[in-house]
Every structure is written in C-alpha cells, then in structure tokens.
Amino acid sequence: MRGRTIVGMLAAATLLIAACGGAKAASLELTAREFGFGPGELHARANQPVELRMKNEGQLTHDWTVEGMPASAVRAHDTGKHDMAAMGSMPALHTTAEHGTTSTIAFTPTKAGSYTYYCTAAGHREAGMQGTIVVAP
Ligand SMILES: [Cu+2]
Residue 70 is part of which domain span? Predict the structure, then answer.
C-alpha cells in the first residue's frame, strides 16, 4: 500500500513538472548526411529544455548520439531504426532518422560542459559524422 502511494505521488509530481515546466524549449536544427552533421557545433544551456530536430538529407539511415551528457526529460521520436547491437548499451541520448525524414529528441541538459555527438552507424563517425554540443552554465 505504502509503495503504491509513493508511486502515485511520483506520477503526480512528474505530471506537475511536465505541466508547468516553465522555461520554453530551445529549438536546435541539425542535418545529417553522408558524412557529416550540419552544424558541427550545437549550443544549449544547463537546465533549459531543448528540442532537437534532425533532418536526414542523406541516403542512409543516420543517428544522433551523445554519451556521457547528464540530461533529464529525454523523449525521442525516431523515424528510423538500425541495429544497435554493436554498442554495449543503449546510450541515453539517441535519435535515429531514416533518409528523407526528420526525427526529434527533447531533453534537458543538467550539467554544463562540452560533449561529443556522433552517428553510431558503422564507419560513419570515422567518416566525419561527429560534432560538439556545448552546454553553457
Ligand atoms: Cu550515419
């Protein structure tokens, strides 16, 4: 009973936070193609929600992945799928777009710093699909 009450309270708190999240989300636009991202550098602010749209202008399926960046409220809407088995674990920040489509990912970075984003498809990062997201304090 007690456990159920706590779960209920957490759900209510989550709804409340979602409802009055306050800060307007910053929109970031990104394109992906063979083989690179445009732009190669993105800017965000700690604790400000971000909505990133990745337009895949290439012929292959591409993804946008960040490892090691603390973030909350992550919601990805993928428009493509590819085999992630080569990765040990699914990264927390990840969105995939099939060619000709736009996928989105919403998140709130919680720690200032410089983080690397890249495409996890075999060979794509090495070919140039890598960039930096700078989170200002
Ligand atoms: Cu790629």
Answer: 24-136
Tokens read off for 36? 């690179």
Question: Does residue 94 lie in a domain region?
Answer: yes
What's the whole-number average pLDDT of the chain?
86
Can you give the pTM of this predicted structure? 0.79
Domain membership of residue 106 (yes or no) is yes
Q: State the distance from the centre of ligand 1 to the C-alpha of 136, rounded, in angstroms.
A: 27
Instruction: Name the token pair of 61.
Output: 């399926």
Q: What is the domain-level CATH number for residue 102?
A: 2.60.40.420
What's the 117 CA to ligand 1 centre distance in angstroms? 11
Query: What digits encode the pLDDT tens for the residues 43-69?
Result: 999 999 999 999 999 999 999 999 899
Quote the number of domains for the chain. Answer: 1
Whether the Cβ atoms of residue 45 and residue 26 lie closer than 8 Å to each other: yes
How far apart are the C-alpha atoms of 65 and 47, rounded to whole Å? 19
Amino acid 45: pLDDT: 97
Angle at 124 between CA 121 and CA 130, to 5 degrees: 110
Q: Tell me whether residue 109 is in a domain.
A: yes
Supply the pLDDT for residue 87: 65
